[in-house]
Each structure stands twice: as C-alpha cells, then as structure tokens.
Amino acid sequence: MAAFHFELVSPEKLLFSGDVESVVAPGSEGQFTVLKDHAPVMTTLKPGVVAVATGDGKVEKLFVRGGFADVNAGGFTILAEVAAPLGEIDIAKLDSDIKNAKEDLGDAKSDEARRAASEKLAQLEEMRAAVGA
Amino acid sequence: MPSLKDLRNRISSVKATQKITKAMQMVAAAKLRRAQTAAEAARPYAERMESVLANLAAGVTTGGPQLLAGNGKDGVHLLVVATAERGLCGAFNSSIVRLAREHILRLQGQGKTVKILCVGKKGYDQLRRQFEKDIVELIELRGLKQIGFENADEIGKKIIAMFEAGEFDVATLFFSKFKSVIAQIPTAQQLIPAQIAANENAPAVEGPQPSYEYEPGQDEILSELLPRNISVQVFRALLENAASEQGARMSAMDNATRNAGDMIKKQTTLYNRSRQAMITKELIEIISGAEAL
Q: Quick check: B216 contacting A, CB < 8 Å?
C-alpha cells in the first residue's frame, strides 16, 4: 500500500512524524480513516484514540483530546490540544483524576461550574475507556 | 587613602559577590538549555497551526469572525507586555519595556486609548511609574518551574474574553525573541486581528486548487481555531521569553563575574602597594631614629 506523510503535534512537542499507510482519527462527526490521496478535509476532533498503521504492519495508538485534523495534498496533520501515546498514560493517576472530577461535579455550585466539571469528567472517562483494563 | 583593613574587607566582599554571580551564571546556563528545548519542541505546533490557518483564511474572502478581521475599529489598543519575574538579566526587561513604551507613546500621540496587560512583574514595575492608570492587570507566573500550555491558554482566554466584552479593538503582544545567548530581539506581534503570513512553503498544487471539505463547517472550525491560535501565540512568546531571559542572565552574569575578577586584581595590587609603602615607612622611621642617636 502506498504511504503518505502524517504528523501529530501537541503544543508541547511533536509526537509523531513519518510516512504511514493509514490513520484512523476520531472526528467530531464520526471516526474516519485517511489513506493516501484522501480528499482535502479539515475537521475538529473529539477526545479519542488515533490509530496509526505504519508500513510494517504495526499499529501505533495515541490518545488525543480536542484539536484539528487537516488533510491536504502535503499529507495529514493533527493539531491536538493534549496528546499522549497510550502506553505512557498512568492508569493510577487517571483513576484518581476521575475520582477528583466526580467530586468536583458533586461540589459544583453554579451551572457553569457543573458544565465544566461534567465535560472534564467525560473526557477523562473517554481516556480511561481508551486505555482499557 | 583607605587603610589596609578596609582594602582587605573590600577584596573579600568582591570575592563573595563573584562567587554569587558565577553560581547564577551556571544556573542560568542549565535553565537555558531546558528553556531552549521547550521552545524548540513547541515550534512545530505553532508552524503547523500557522499553515492550517493560512489555508483556512485563504478560503474566507470577506468578513469572517471578528478575531480574524477585527471589529472595524482602531480606537482602543491592548498591549500585552511579557517580561521576566526576576531582574539581574541585563537589559532583557528594559528592552522589552522600551519597545512597549515607544508604542504606547506613539499610540497616545495619535489620540488612541491604550490598555496594558502585564505578564511578569518586572515589566509591571517599570511601566507602573509612567502608565499606572493604563495598566489593566498583572499576571504573575512566579513559582512556575516550566511554563505549560495551560498557563498560556489562560492568558489567551482572558484576552479573548476582554475582546468579546468590547474592551479593546486591537491587541499586540510584546516579548523577546530568542536568537542566541547574546542576541535577544524585542518583538511586537499583533494578536487581534490575526495576522496571517502568506503560506509560501505550501506545496504548489498543479491545476485547479482542490476544494476543502469542512466538518462541521468552515465557520465553526475557524471560530474554534482562532482562539486556539491566540493561546498558541502567547505560549510561543512565553517560551521564547523564558529562553531569552536565561540567555540574557547568563551573559550578564558572565560580565559581572569578569568585572569582579578585574576589581579583585586592582584592589589586590593596591593592597600590596600600600602594605609595602607602610613597611618602607616604618623602616625609614627606625633608621632615621637610629641615625639621630
């Protein structure tokens, strides 16, 4: 299969850059797969897992939270707000974060605070589900 | 003529100062390396962001969101002045403040209202003397070991909230661009309306330009991308500033250490000379006393 250029960047660093066969990304209007010569698309992302199939049959999975995907003639670029390889996520810390977020939600006084807390909780739970086990 | 004891005290105090400046120089060197890697790591994101935005903005012909096109007015300017939290870094803070001050005076000369948002205490201290009433807020980043994107995001959101509340029309960011350890360039960058560089290094596509598909829609994406872009610009500025600050401190402390060395040398020569003069004087007294007998 033909390869194309893929890049995943977060504000802190460049997480992935290289030639890949296919990328599955969690678009805000549904998951989509990008192969070579994909039509130019720009979309926002929702929290989820980006699965990158590199040429040698391996699949690299990275968690992203919020961001943009830009597919053009030069390749595919994801600008993520937060991104981390699945293997590097600390499950214990994630669990305690979820617990904290739940408490925040219980303590939230105003509608605004409640909305922010539930959004955060949903994102964390998405991340937890992605890590599995 | 200072006495021998005075000279000795002076030498030892200069030596103590030299030790401090030397230590500060080494600390700055270590911090500089970290700040530099952080600044370099953030560069790809900002560059991609720019090219995505350029692609997107090229499709917008007229109008567009206010963050991109401005609100059509030019009366109130917001100046975001990013400086360091600490001094002892040469002309680093003053040169940013000087650039900001020139801007302020020019804008005020044109009869425009200026509002100042200070990031970092040192800039606030310097601007306060002249423009106390124009300063809206001071954001301190003291105690942060490493500037994270969240810090920049917070500042970015604050700026956008102010813009949406109609508190200003044009926003400019002042910071120091890191070129090398000895060269930092104070820079002014316009944040709102967004300035988008023409995308020259985009791959030239033959034939008709492919039309982008937008999900959900072009306007939705743009309205999400623009606030993010401001946070990214602020983040980049803060990182560049951090690297510049350490670089400036390093060379300032290097100079100070060298100066202290020179001073010690001079004082030691003076000390030795007056010590010998004293011995000679005593000898003369003894000899002439013996001769008089």
A: yes
pTM above 0.80, yes or no: yes
Q: pLDDT digit string (tens) for A59-92?
A: 888 888 878 888 888 888 888 888 888 777 777 7
Q: Which of B45, B225, B226 to mutate to test the interface with A (most CBs of A within 10 A)?
A: B45
- Among chain A residues, CA nearest to B203: A74
> Tens of pLDDT along B127-181?
999 888 888 888 888 777 778 888 888 899 899 899 888 888 899 999 999 888 8
CB atoms within 10 A of CB B109: 8
pLDDT for position B281: 95
Residues of B taking part in catalysis: 89
* Residue A61: φ, ψ to 5°: -115, 130
Q: Locate the domains of chain A by residue range.
A: 4-86, 90-131
Inter-chain CB proximity B149 and A12 less than 8 Å: yes
CATH 2.60.260.20 correct for A4-86: no
Pairing of strands B76-82, A75-85: unpaired
Contact residues on chain B for A9, CB-CB shorter than 8 A:
44-45, 48
